[in-house]
């Protein structure tokens, strides 16, 4: 992927508008500095109006004109919206949910790609797109499908269930092995053949945890395989890189799918109130494919919207701040959904650059502000990239599935237990502490890190422990928990030790009790007398090694009184920190902020500017190894950073005085030595 230019893009649907509008669209795009469009993902019925009648001549003409205007294109395979002829009268080709409801044509993602007829039609349209457009000079990248599993989760189509039985047979080899691994004697759930193993359809109570987790992992593998098939077809016809636009909340395996792509991209629609959601996505997808730029493939110019719901419109200045954050955190594209407001369909309330009647929208001026920022940043970032992070947060796709199946300690009214929310909360603490960070997949290398936080990862398997143990011995600090290590790979409770024998040996602890803390009045006592309220699913520990230091004990009206919830142990040149309960409320939040900062400081993590909450520092590293900063106010309240002597403003060249530097509301500063 090229480091430059920085792409400023829109999602564009010329097929929805009169042919004469194309020139007007292009002229306005050029005026705004739009140099990229994404197109094609919803155009299957235009390309193949009747089965087997495929023509891309219209789109070739559009691509020719865009190329002549200097506007690059990402072409998408149109498989998320199969045409009516594929599924009408063929319910067996449609997606089926866990309750047995068969989806209908009328939206998107309604077809079952497990059905062989649907899959063949998908392959045919992808082949046609690749063969006809694979060498077109306008195209700089390909996107497979669109937002896999945005609207649906696991498919219970009969073909999917048949594939499930085959997947189980390949994974376990014999039904006896499956029964032993899952522990199916519970509730007489022992199976005699693989084809007896149900998918987790509606049942009077709940399915076995092992089955539910395995089913979700199977379904995610099938999505990834479908994506890989499309990529293999495209690679026969194009040398341009291939991506998919992820959403972190969708039912896919992000780590598994990323392996089959040339670069990763994502869709996110952060509002001013949840600006850190976008930062989380950058930190995750930047780390997903090291040394390859990631893209923002969709965001809104003003507000998200569809029937029955719409978000508050962005305040003035927010969009430019979002763009600067994106580019500063390693993205090379800022692409809006969408260019022109939908005149029909179910997303008419969604913001766009231009209105349906082709007048500037409420976000139009903000797009101009983004272009000004892009032009200022482009020469600065041409030979720079985000500085390597020394702190990371572990993302586990399996951990997410397990917590979805079994939300330990869930009390939705008092303390919801949710994997994505938990990860984002920990990530926000790293942001507020001013720590440049990655969100690294469970299988990622730990090179360059000094501190790794691993919360809510129910299964800590041998492969992960091998990697972490070697890294800790070499000097890393591993913060393990809360909710980490409580289950085996098959989603059972460990029977050799509460957290598994190896993890407990490494940490020098023994898990004594595990129980829900929410509403129990349990407190964590630190510094001899300081009380921290605790919630969620907690674990009480007892040291099993003289080298284990108890840093926090439990005050509880239970047998856990006086046992540990926070321990540390040196291991080689590094240390292992166990945290086995979730501090809550303002008091817990303040303590966690201090805890995160102290873990980083004690590990020797470089400090970057001590930003005030709501202000982000994105350190950069140029081709000569020199470091510089971009500071952005993200919360609209204005903020401060502390700068050393000898810095200059990278835009104006003026000297910047050492000390506290004010960063205005949604403003940004680039600072170099």
TrEMBL record:
Domain Glycoside hydrolase family 42 N-terminal span(s) in chain numbering: 11-374
Residue stretches spanning the membrane: none
Major enzyme class: hydrolase
Listed GO biological process terms: carbohydrate metabolic process
EC id: 3.2.1.23
InterPro entries assigned to the protein according to its UniProt record, in alphabetical order: Beta_galactosidase_Trimer (IPR013738), Class_I_gatase-like (IPR029062), GH (IPR017853), Glyco_hydro_42 (IPR003476), Glyco_hydro_42_N (IPR013529)
Domain Beta-galactosidase trimerisation intervals: 389-605
Binding site for substrate: 108, 146, 306
Reaction(s) the record says it catalyses: Hydrolysis of terminal non-reducing beta-D-galactose residues in beta-D-galactosides
Active site: 147, 298
Keywords: Glycosidase, Hydrolase, Metal-binding, Zinc
GO molecular function annotations of the record: beta-galactosidase activity; metal ion binding
UniProt-listed Pfam families: Glyco_hydro_42, Glyco_hydro_42M
CDD domains: A4_beta-galactosidase_middle_domain (cd03143)
Gene Ontology cellular component terms for the protein in this record: beta-galactosidase complex
Similarity section: Belongs to the glycosyl hydrolase 42 family.
Name of the featured protein: Beta-galactosidase
Species the sequence originates in: Synoicihabitans lomoniglobus
Lineage: Bacteria, Pseudomonadati, Verrucomicrobiota, Opitutia, Opitutales
